[in-house]
Amino acid sequence: MLNNLEQEAIDEFLYVLSQAEGLLLACEKAMNKESYTFLFRALHNIKGSCGMFESFQSLTSIIHQAETEFRAQEGLDRVPAQSVDTILKLFDQFRAEVATL
Description:
Elements: H1 4-27, H2 33-50, H3 57-71, H4 81-99
Helix pairs in contact: 1-2, 1-4, 2-3, 3-4
């Protein structure tokens, strides 16, 4: 059972993740520096915030993988479909892990 602070954090993570997901799909067609920066910061902030909670270590690991995959796309004009698929699967894995908390 999550305490109130943990639940608020999870709610925020899921909201930001849904925003990032929509932008990631758009970046499959075209990505600019602003899109890259927003997505990278969103993933990085989720990872850092997860790290503040001992019970969220598995979430930290999953989002770190997504951040690493996305970071490899820096400087490209779009995110390749294979990377989008990988990141979306990690987002789904993150959500599935949240459901077990």
